[in-house]
Amino acid sequence: MNNRKEQIDKQKVAQAKRIASQSKKISSSFENMEAGFFRFFRSFSTLLDHLLFGTKHAGIVSLIIAVMLFAIVNFNSQDSVFGSSLLYSRTVSNLEISAQYSETTYELSGLPSECSVTLTGDAGSVTSAASNNGYCLIDLEGLVEGTHTVKLQAIGYGDAVEKVITPTSASITLKKKTTGQFVIGYDFINTDKMDDVYVLGTPSFGSSKVNVRASQDTLDSIAFVKALIDVENVSEEFTQQAKLVAYNTSGLPVNADIVPSTVEVTVPVKSPSKIVPIVLETTGKLEDGFAIESIDMDHQTVTIYAPESVLAQVEQVTVSIDASTLTKDTKIVQPIILPSGVSTSDITKVNLDIKLGEEASKLITQVSPYFTNNESGYRFLPDKAYYDVNVYGTVSNIEDISSADIRIYFDMIDAEIGDAEFTLHVVQNTNPYIHYELVDSTISGIIEDPNSSEGE
């Protein structure tokens, strides 16, 4: 029995030794693991410091951090790119604003010219809504005369999107309309597209007056109502429905209801004409020693077109020549100068054949002057009665000139009683080949009042 107990004790000692040995191994393993963990942590820390603070990898690390922050911030926002349930917005601008009210009863002012609508929803719904022909509406039904602030409504975009309107409201004014009557005037339009040979007569209207419906303030601002008569390409009498437009004193259109909006008008179209001679006029002076011998024109007369009142005043047309440009015999083409009010002519240019010759001169004596603009009825007693004039031209052109062909004059518009002196002027002959010069360009004498002399 003692042997058995002794054996058991030996076994317990052996087991205790095994347990102690095993505990030592386990403790050694934990120490090794702890040492390995700290080595890994030091290595990872060194690597992280190298990546984060090293200049070589700083850009890559910053990009990664930025992407991570963007994803975090936008994951649940309406503009997020993550998922089909995120929101999208789009603004439609320059939209028409329509007003719903009784246009026959009220005049509306203060309506904004346009609006914009911001649409918000999923991308498909917003794209579909934006493609619609939507508009903004102001509903004024039920409102009375006066100023009102009314909200705008977005129409035509459906219910799948949210809509924000800019501006959200408008301050508008309703004024009751009344009716006024105006005499119809007229304006011709597109006159630049009508042939110049035609002249428009006075229009005759189917009605001389027209009704205009607007607020009293608007009616008071209307200065006249005109029919706009289109005369493009007209060549004979015509009848048309001319549009009526109201204007203020500044000539700007006024927005008002014109009833009816057009008027029937008939306009006569004529082509008045007259045949007049072509007269040559010379300016400038030829070189010394030369004069114009002759000028032949291929046309002596021209047919001009103008209103009859203008034609009655026109006796001739002119062609001008600058003599200072002539140095030898030449052929040139010159335009015809039309008087004011003459619209056109059957010919616009003439061909001239100019011949030059040697200049000669001739003294003309015993030329008696006359006066103009003696509005006070004074009597002028000149120091001498006759004056001399030099005539220049070719021999053949001046040989027949006499004192009867020359006219000289002085102007008494500023005349006063007493001693006086006036400047003499010579009337150049219509013959463009001859030039006159006064030997003495002043005339002296005494001015008397004939009424005062008779009284004495």
Q: What gyration radius follows from the Cα positions, in whole Å?
A: 53 Å
The CATH architecture classification of the largest domain is Beta Complex
Estimate the strand proportion: 35-45%
The level of helicity is 10-25%
Look up the CATH topology of the largest domain.
RNA Polymerase Alpha Subunit, Chain A, domain 2
Low-confidence stretches: 75-84
What is the subunit organization of this protein?
Answer: single chain
In DSSP terms, counting alpha (H) and pi (I) runs of 4 or more, how many helices?
7
Give the integer mean of the pLDDT values.
Answer: 86
What is the tally of beta strands? Answer: 34
Strand order, sheet with most strands: 12-17-15-14-10-13-16
Global outline: elongated
Q: In the residues, how many domains can be counted? A: 4
Largest sheet: 7 strands, mixed
Class by alpha and beta content: alpha+beta
CATH class of the largest domain: Mainly Beta
How far apart, in Å, are the first and last alpha carbons?
Answer: 201 Å
Protein model, in words:
With 456 residues, this protein is α+β, with helices and mostly antiparallel strands. It is 21% helix and 43% strand. It is built from seven helices and 34 strands. The longest helix has 52 residues. The chain is elongated. The termini are far apart.
Tell me briefly what this model is.
With 456 residues, the protein is α+β, with helices and mostly antiparallel strands. It folds into four domains: 88-176, RNA Polymerase Alpha Subunit, Chain A, domain 2; 179-270, RNA Polymerase Alpha Subunit, Chain A, domain 2 (Beta Complex); 273-358, Beta Complex (RNA Polymerase Alpha Subunit, Chain A, domain 2); 360-455, RNA Polymerase Alpha Subunit, Chain A, domain 2 (Beta Complex).
